[in-house]
């Protein structure tokens, strides 16, 4: 496959500029530099592109860097046959067209000299200074002779660490990979696919996170052409046939221009064609493609306020598709992207997507961090204080990546985890109770928040509050949540009277449905693998040191959390041991009969359980039935299940109550909705001496609320008094024992 065949987007991006003949540049490079007072002819295109963005740039340093690069690479050739110097020239031109500043372009010209020639980093530092030296070192590959199979992952690790100090390192790497992908056709197929796969898994997500859309979209198309050649060719055919797919965007663009002129809004309206992979995705989503599906309208204005003025005119004069509206100006993406997205109805009911942004927003949307120039340059001549050199993008994703890579000492673990981390392409922001903020990938849980905030200190995390309510550590967080992590070694700061800020009892989960937690009850609820209380039945000895359980790995989404949890479990193998369960206190048992849960049955060695549908307690009249597996289930005689069992011909088993007074019961409370109702109900239950095992409050329906409580009573004789106390709570109109309705 030729380089041209794998570069579907290259021609459109260079419209308006003379196309560059790399072979001609190569021949010019072999001739060496020109006179002292002018730049070598070979980098004329670079100088032209650079001056378009930076009119006052000093180009002499570029000429000096070119001379060193050309002399160092002289005699080296690429696999395509061109002189090697054509590669750093092409990489530098890519960055110059994006608006990179002079230091980046200087390092770009020299980026392969230390790796492939006799030039040393000390020479680069002596000639061009520390910044250029740092950038060149950051993109220099590690030797396979020294690292073997780990050379590629360790090179990326080195590059990412360098990017943490200076994002321009990754800018150079992305441009380097783009030119290599453009000219990949001379490689054998297996190598093309290997390079394209790494590009797809690592470099394209990094380009997205750095906001360099111009590089990202072309890299996507080039990787698409190699990794999915059949789909790529099918997409080429669809695009070629797009001209006959119905009315295109030209009539709509003209209508938009006329509308904005009449509103006296100065704006540039252009048609922005979709790139190949975008067309492919749109075809899979929409099926048959219309003429308007092959591009978007881009409206460019001068000021932020003009963006909203354009939006108002479009939504007034056209039929808007409200579900397609997104405001990335008020809430920019984590990669600096700002724009208004909307859609309006076009000819024949077609949907036309519209992007609205300022010219500066457009520059940043295309070039990302490259458009920032030198983000570390002194402001007004003042050097930044130590520790103030921050990533110009939102620091969350890069900071997290740099933190967890330190713990991933194994190259394979680092490489696998890096790909998984970069595959999570959306980010949320959650707020801490103390006023801080955490950036986390979408889908992150309280486990991830704990390790993001406390590092290894999160091993002792026992729970969390999300938006003021107790929540299990497996709770998935959403953008804007407020989180407070509770650590075993820190005193839990309870709200006044044991209630949360909204006046309700502490409940697991969020919203109107939750499980009320009381001390010593959480371990009784099945399926809660991340509860505060842990007992031997949950997989850890009671005297074990506080720490994560293996189940935490199922809920951790961030690499930092997963690596830390796995490391702790490996260092504490005893945490995986299941302690022997303590012997149970025998209930009332007669000869040849087995008693469980204060129930005595006439079936030897049978497992006995109280039915959850009616939760019988002494002195209820009860009946037992043998069910699948040989267990005996005990029901109240008025339970509908008894009638069904009898109808099926199952013989009853003789059942009687033992002498133990304790019992567990489930009650339903029906009430009208009012403030503090849950608090008053749970106070009545506590006053009656019952312990709440779990509670559930359903969302109100027609101003009525249903509560479900599972309670542990010290004596079954107290049940009638408890139910009366609950009925006496204002707003409660019914309290009854749990019992399923009869089957129809």
Please provide a written account of the structure:
- The chain is an alpha+beta fold.
- It has 27 helices and 23 strands.
- The strands form six sheets. The chain has a five-stranded mixed β-sheet. Strands 7-6-10-8-9 form a five-stranded mixed β-sheet, with helices on one face.
- Strand 11 and strand 12 (515-516) form a beta hairpin.
- Helix 12 runs parallel beside helix 14 and helix 20 packs parallel to helix 24 (559-571).
- The longest helix is centred in the first third of the chain and has 21 residues, at 189-209.
- The chain is elongated and about 100 Å long.
Short overview:
The protein is an alpha+beta fold and 744 residues long. The protein is 39% helix and 16% strand. The N and C termini lie far apart (69 Å).
What's the overall geometry? Answer: elongated
- Provide the helix percentage: 25-40%
Q: Averaging pLDDT over every residue, what do you get?
A: 75
In total, how many beta strands? 23
Distance between the termini: 69 Å
Query: Measured on Cα atoms, how large is the radius of gyration?
Result: 34 Å
Main sheet specs = 5 strands, mixed
- Unreliable segments of 5+ consecutive residues: 1-37, 384-395, 491-545, 578-596, 740-744
Strand coverage percent: 15-25%
Number of helices: 27
Indicate the structural class: alpha+beta
Strand order of the largest sheet: 1-2-5-4-3
């Amino acid at each position: 496959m030729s380089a041209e065949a794998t570069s579907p987007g290259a021609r459109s991006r260079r419209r308006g500029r003379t196309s560059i003949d790399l072979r001609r540049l190569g021949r010019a490079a072999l001739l060496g530099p020109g006179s002292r007072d002018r730049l070598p002819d070979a980098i004329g295109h670079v100088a032209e592109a650079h001056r378009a963005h930076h009119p006052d740039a000093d180009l002499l340093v570029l000429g000096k860097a070119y001379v060193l690069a050309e002399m160092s690479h002289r005699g080296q050739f690429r696999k395509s046959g061109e002189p090697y110097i054509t590669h750093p020239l092409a990489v530098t031109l890519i960055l110059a067209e994006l608006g990179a500043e002079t230091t980046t372009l200087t390092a770009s010209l020299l980026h392969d000299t230390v790796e492939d020639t006799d030039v040393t980093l000390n020479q680069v530092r002596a000639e061009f200074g520390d910044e250029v030296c740092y950038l060149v070192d950051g993109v220099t590959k590690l030797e396979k002779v020294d690292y073997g199979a780990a050379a590629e992952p360790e090179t990326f690790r080195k590059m990412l660490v360098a990017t943490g100090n200076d994002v321009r390192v990754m800018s150079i790497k992305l441009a380097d990979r783009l030119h290599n992908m453009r000219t990949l056709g001379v490689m054998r197929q297996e190598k093309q696919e290997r390079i394209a796969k790494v590009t797809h898994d690592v470099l394209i997500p990094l380009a997205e996170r750095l906001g360099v859309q111009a590089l990202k979209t072309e890299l996507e198309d080039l990787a698409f052409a190699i990794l999915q050649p059949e789909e790529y060719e099918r997409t080429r055919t669809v695009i070629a046939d797009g001209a006959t797919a119905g009315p295109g965007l030209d009539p709509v663009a003209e209508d938009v221009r006329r509308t904005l002129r009449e509103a006296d809004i100065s704006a540039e309206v252009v048609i922005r064609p979709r790139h190949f992979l975008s067309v492919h995705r749109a075809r899979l989503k929409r099926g048959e493609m219309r003429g308007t599906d092959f591009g978007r309208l881009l409206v460019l204005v001068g000021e932020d306020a003009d963006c909203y003025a354009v939006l108002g005119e479009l939504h007034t004069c056209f039929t808007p598709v409200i579900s397609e509206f997104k405001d990335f100006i008020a809430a920019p993406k984590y990669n600096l992207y700002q724009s208004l997205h909307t859609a309006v109805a076009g000819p024949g009911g077609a949907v036309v997507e519209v992007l609205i942004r300022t010219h500066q927003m457009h520059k940043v949307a295309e070039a990302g961090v490259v458009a920032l120039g030198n983000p570390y340059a002194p402001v007004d001549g003042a050097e930044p204080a130590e520790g103030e050199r921050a990533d110009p993008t939102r620091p969350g994703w890069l900071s997290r990546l740099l933190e967890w890579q330190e713990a991933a000492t194994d190259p394979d673990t680092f490489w696998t985890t890096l790909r998984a981390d970069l595959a999570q392409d959306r980010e949320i922001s959650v707020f801490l109770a103390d006023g801080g903020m955490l950036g986390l990938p979408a889908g992150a849980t309280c486990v991830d928040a704990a390790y993001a905030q406390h590092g290894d200190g999160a091993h002792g995390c026992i729970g969390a509050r999300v938006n003021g309510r107790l929540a299990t550590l497996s709770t998935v967080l959403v953008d804007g949540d407020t989180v407070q992590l509770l650590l075993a070694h820190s005193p839990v700061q309870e709200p006044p009277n044991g209630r949360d800020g909204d006046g309700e009892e502490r409940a697991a989960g969020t919203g109107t449905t939750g499980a009320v937690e009381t001390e010593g009850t959480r371990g009784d609820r099945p399926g809660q693998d991340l509860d505060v209380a842990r007992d031997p039945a949950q997989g850890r000895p009671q005297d074990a040191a506080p720490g994560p359980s293996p189940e935490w790995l199922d809920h951790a989404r961030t690499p930092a959390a997963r690596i830390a949890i796995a490391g702790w479990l490996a260092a504490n193998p005893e945490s995986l041991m299941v302690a022997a369960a303590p012997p149970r206190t025998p209930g009332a048992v007669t000869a040849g009969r087995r008693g469980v849960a204060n129930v005595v049955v006439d079936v030897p060695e049978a497992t006995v359980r109280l039915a959850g549908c009616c939760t019988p307690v002494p002195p209820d009249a009860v009946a037992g039935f043998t069910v699948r597996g040989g267990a005996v289930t005990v029901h109240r005689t008025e339970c509908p299940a008894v009638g069904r069992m009898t109808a099926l011909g199952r013989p009853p088993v003789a059942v009687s109550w033992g002498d133990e007074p304790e019992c567990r019961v489930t009650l339903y409370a029906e009430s009208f909705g009012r403030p503090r109702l849950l608090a008053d109900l749970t106070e009545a239950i506590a006053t009656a001496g019952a312990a709440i095992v779990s509670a559930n409050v359903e969302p109100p329906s027609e101003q009525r609320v249903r509560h479900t409580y599972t309670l542990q009573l010290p004596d079954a004789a107290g049940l009638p008094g408890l139910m009366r106390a609950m009925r006496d709570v204002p707003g409660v109109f019914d309290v009854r024992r749990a019992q399923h309705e009869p089957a129809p």
